[in-house]
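Replying to the earlier thread about multi-chain prediction with a worked example.

Input:
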Amino acid sequence: MNIIRKWAHAFCAAASLSTSVAYAQIPPIKIGLPVPLTGPYGAEAKDQVKNAELAVKEFNDAGGLNGRKAELLVRDDKLNPGEAATRALELIEKDKANFIVGGLSAATQLAINNVTKQRKVIYISISQSDVINESSDFSRYTFHEALNPHMTTQAVGHYAFKKGMRIAFLTADYAYGQEMTRGFTRVAKEMGAEVVGELKHPLGSSDYSTFLPRLQALKPDILVFNNFGRDNQVSIKQATDFGMKKSMKFVTPIMTYTSRLAAGPHVYEGVVGGTSYFWSIEDKTASAKTFNDQYKASNDGVYPSDYGSMAYSAVKSLLAAVKTAGTADTEKVADALASLKYDTYKGQQYYRACDHQSVQSVLIIESNSKEARNPADVFKVLQVVSGSEKLLRECTELGFK
Amino acid sequence: MDGITAQLLGLQIFTGLALGAIYVLLAVGLSLIFGMLTVVNFAHGAFFMVGAYAGYSLYQIFPNFWICLIGVPVITGAIGLLVERFLVRPLYGRGIDYPLLLTFGLAYVMVELVRMGYGKQGLPFDTPAALQDSVDVFVGQFPAYRIFVIVVTAIILVGLWFFIEKTSFGLIIRAGARDPSIVRILGIDITKVWLIVFGLGTGIAGLAGVLSAPLQGITPEMGGSVLIISFVVTVVGGMGSLVGAVIAGLLVGVVESLAVLFFPEGAKVSMFVIMALVLLVKPQGLFGRSGLMS
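Result:
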């Protein structure tokens, strides 16, 4: 009898132990992150990974969702829409991801969005696209954390253009470039500036010398470089080599921290651009200081970049919505996100109701020409255009009733 | 199209010549290797890329662009010698396909090795301070560095011409291209000639790479697009013809440049159109006679 009792006790103990083990086996909240780790935007993509990891770490360190942790699943979409769609599908079907954050080009964003819309999975996109705001791509589950070309060009164009100026464009021939050119053309018209010409180049070009004499002959006051990443660095470098800075001002809609570091002060000297974030706003914005300090602590004193911090904000606000909703259930989190007011790193942000575009500030920056004491001090913030729906296109223009 | 002045045209042609200079360097190396060894070197773009990276590394040790300019072709030439001796030579006599496939695979290996060693991202490469500015070339402002590239190309071409036409080794090369068996009968080790020619070709490719580095930065993939251009130019000029490589390279550069003025969408396609037209009329290329050096 005693032996049976002993075994019964042991069995009960084991059973209770196994139930607590089963509890600990609730799967973590999985966030899929498809970004172009290989290709011309690799540097920005790697930054986004590091930033997303920080947001997840902060969530987990604060206890997660009642003990349930979050986990990041990083995938390489190679800047290819087909790959991006496949990665998104895999993340949802095979890896059972709860949410997707990612996409560093308009085309990959739309490809991912097509998948997530169909599968009813929450997707937060983290790069510029005007199309994703339009009614045909809208979904209750899709949110747009990044700036879009319209907002960017409104802010930068109003700063840089003056009545009577001659404007020329060097455009990368894909969605980003075309949408930026469209946005800037609109602003030029509003301000009474004249668009004198545009030259389009294939994405990923390594030589721009054949475009530059023609652009120079147009005698513009401002040359706008509507391209991104390595294309931006190389085209501005080559235009500088042609001595074009002597006769015109260089403007670019998005001047990234990674590009400026890669290309150096001589190339970007005197260039004016826009950005979603630069670390130096920490002296006026408390959340920026907190974010910068946290990031530096986990990254050897390196400051966070613009595109990187977008990924941080997307994941952090997503997890904040999860906390508010009290669950990882898609429907409840979607509702929480739609009404969320958040200040993750740059000030107040919220998602506009009709298109789920995150309303936020745009910074106008100029590149510093000398190496400062702090090697991260590469930009001067000329103006902070505060976040307002005036920067966005009207809901009706986007096709919403 | 409006606004095309004679000045713009002149500047655009000049730009095309500068563009063509790099094409010429690449095509010359490829043509040499094919003309002499009948080897289609699919790793040519990879040697171009390795040249750029070798220049970067050399610059870290000796921060002097001129030293890099001399050192890089030596490095890529040496790698070429090793490749020929141990990888390509065992395949001689088996037809044109084997060395082609070998060099094709070699290209992938070289790119991956560079990715592993230097990262996938790519690295910046500054224009040497002395050449950073633009100069007035009568038709407009033009980057001093690109003029330098034209000058270096011209020097290399003159040196190559002198080497092939006026030295006894060059005589052997020309004879070996015309009839390798007779050269062997005369007691000359033709395999050593092939070794040197392969090294020469890859050395020039590497030089083109380090020359291109300040223009566009360096990435592990930079050899890919350049390889296609090298082949187009070599085919247009005629496989095995040095003169053909020069004329075709400059032609392709200038046509691409002018196309941007008149028909920008077609600029990148223009070289293929030229190739198609030339091959229809003269299948061996403008100056081609397989196996000959001039």
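Chain A is about 40% helix and 20% strand.

Feel free to reuse this layout for your own posts.
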